[in-house]
TrEMBL record:
Entry keyword annotation includes Kinase: no
Protein keywords: Glycoprotein, Membrane, Transmembrane, Transmembrane helix
Protein name: Transmembrane protein 161B, putative
Family stated for the protein in its record: Belongs to the TMEM161 family.
Transmembrane segments: 47-67, 100-125, 184-205
CC annotations in GO: membrane
Length: 209
């Protein structure tokens, strides 16, 4: 049951980013017997981030089970080779088994890397949401007049550089970064679930065909 829940859990995270299914239901609808909504917008954002972290933690705890299921491919391949007609050399048998163990590091990396990436983007999204209201815009200070021409040139260049940075800060706002990180988190969870489904279908039907 826990393994099935771990497999389907990224789908729940993806659905939490669909506005008609999750956000409107929890933050905009009013139900009979309730004075307000189920939760505020900030609480909904925090719930989504906690859900992502919970899914990552659950799948990391079940990682030994998944890796063991991959290692079980070695005896299955040996059993399939023994059913084949003809003589089987020891070298060929060892190659079949060794390939599984050599590829274990790649399998572990493919399992851990998406989870850690989802966790990092979720934590960045949480940190950005906390600091969004604290961001202040620092206006460039006017350059003081100097008697020397070299000093005026340096101050003018510094002022132009400050104006350029101020323009970039007005474009790359916390709202923009919040949207990018939110989309990255949703996309990573969606791709993780899609690849898991494709792998399940491939190992269940294609290899046995």
């Amino acid at each position: 049951m826990v393994l099935h829940l771990s497999f389907v859990s990224p789908l729940f995270v993806v659905l939490f980013w669909v506005k008609p299914i999750a956000r409107e239901y929890f933050t905009e609808r009013s139900f009979p017997g309730m004075r307000g909504n189920l939760m505020s917008g900030e609480a909904f954002e925090t719930t989504r981030i906690l859900l992502v972290l919970g899914v990552v933690l659950l799948r990391l705890l079940l990682m030994p089970r998944y890796l063991q299921s991959y290692l079980n491919l070695a005896p299955e391949r040996m059993a399939d080779m023994r059913k084949e007609a003809g003589n089987i050399s020891n070298v060929e048998l060892q190659r079949k088994v060794v390939r599984v163990f050599y590829y274990l590091c790649v399998v572990a990396l493919q399992y851990v890397a998406p989870l850690l990436t989802c966790a990092f983007t979720a934590l960045l999204l949480k940190t950005l949401a906390e600091k969004q209201g604290r961001a202040t815009f620092v206006a460039p200070m006017p350059a003081a007049r100097s008697a020397e021409s070299s000093a005026e040139s340096i101050l003018s260049t510094s002022q132009q550089f400050s104006l350029t940075l101020a323009g970039l800060r007005s474009v790359f706002t916390p709202v923009l970064f919040k949207g990018v990180l939110s989309f990255m988190t949703w996309w990573l969870c969606a791709v993780s679930f899609a690849t898991s489904v494709v792998g399940l279908v491939y190992h269940s039907y294609a290899l046995k065909a």
